[in-house]
Each structure stands twice: as structure tokens, then as C-alpha cells.
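Q: How would the C-alpha cells look for this protein?
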Amino acid sequence: MSIKKTGWQQELKQELQNIGIESEWIISDSFLLLGFKDNQELYLNLLSAGDHPDSAETLALQQQYSQTGKQLIQLWEDIWYTRSAQILSRINALLGKNKRIHGRKTAIISITQPQADTFLNQHHLQGSAKARHRYALVVEDKYVAVATFSGKRKMTRRHADYTSVELIRFATADGFTVQGGLSKLLKHLIKTILPNDVMTYADLDWSYGKGYTKLGFELVEQTPPSAIWLDQAANTRYFPHRLPDEISTAAAQLTEAERIVYLNSLHYISVFNMGNLKYILTCK
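A: Here is the predicted structure in C-alpha cell form.
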């Protein structure tokens, strides 16, 4: 079966080659994948925004790879255009090509929201997000990793005094892997604010959450793929309930079929993610 390779897919392959990563095209039914010549465990599924298989077919392919011990990353066209540097860094890390720093050689400092924003917008695939607690690992006055957390939330369904905190973001500096870094930051957070548990999500487009399992997190839930509207003009993604107010108000008056036509007329197209894995770490 022949699948036409579009400009962004060719560009991705070339950029990988530019940083010393050799890849090869793989055709799998209606999917175009990239495999890596020196790694048989990692594959990229290249999904074009305007022409792609549906979420059920994509999830089935991901599960097929997972069952054989392989990781299949879902890489969308719009994400490549908006976060290409972060994507190349993440792939480099997944292929084990980063410089390794041991967590014990780092110091923990508290940082401000603007400082966290600067680091995470540069190094995290999803950029930054507001957080209550923000910490960096530092070597020679340089940030090599940042983790951000919510404030403590009461979980009265467990018991009156039970509290939980969310790990919102974790990222390392481009080109570095900090061994034991997230564990060190988690221990500091737990010692500092004393929650009963720490909760977080693994993005199934990019992760199976194995790193969380190694840290003692327990998988408690898997959410299904979610529909997303992509504004092609700005390459901005919106969940259906978070569309811009003026668009959401107009769309609410329409039938489902009319809503699709209306959003398409505004250059919004339908894409999706693969859902999330929810993990909880119980604090001793």
C-alpha cells in the first residue's frame, strides 16, 4: 500500500537526521510510521491533521504495539509545527542519547511561576501551567529539571483529613536526563507539604507511564480518546467544552451536523488524543 509522505513528515525525518538519528518509513495499513534503525522498541505514528484514521483504529494500533513491548507515539502535524524543538528533544531522550546527571549531584530550590513558565515552555511538550508548588533541580546555578504541583486538595470521600496533590508538570533541560530527579523532587514535595497521596496523568499519545510505575505510583484509571477541535489558522487545540466563548455560544444553538459544518467553516477540524493514564502514589 502506498501512502504519500507530506511536507511536515519529510521535514521531521530530515530534522532527526540532522541531530544524528537515522529513521526509516514503515507502512502499517492506513498509517505512516517512523522506525529507528538503532532501536526496535520505539516508533512514531505520523498523523496529518486533515487526513487521518479515526481514534478507534489508532488506539487499536497502539495496543497492538504495546502488547509486543513496543512504544508507539502518536505525533500530530500541528504538534510538530508548534513544538518541534521539544519533540526532537523528547525523541532524543527516549532513544537514550541524553547526557546523564545523577539526582544526588543536584540541589533543590523553590522557583516562581514565571521562572517555571520560562523553563517549561521551552522544554515541556505541553508548555507550562499554573501551579501552587514549583521546584527546580540545579547544577552550577543552571536548571536541569523542573516539577510543578497543585496545592493540597481535600478528599473527604476517603476521610475528613485526607489530602491529595497533583504533579502537573515535570521536564528536564534539553539534552539531559536526571537519574532519580523526579523521585528527589517528589520526596521533597511530600516532606514539605505532607499530602496523603500524589496524583498525576500520563499522556497516552507519548507515554505508557512506566516511569511512574517504577516510582511506586499505582495505575487507577485509563480515560478513552478525547475529541479535540483544532483551529488550523493558529494551530491551537480546544476540547469541545473549552471552545472560545463566541464560537461555543453560536455552536450551542446548532444540531451536531450543523455544528460540524459551522466549525469547519471557521477552519476548525476534528482531531483527537489517545486519552490518559491516571496514577496515584500513596505517601507513607
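The chain has eight helices and 17 strands.

The CA atoms of residues 176 and 282 lie 28 Å apart.

Upvote if useful.
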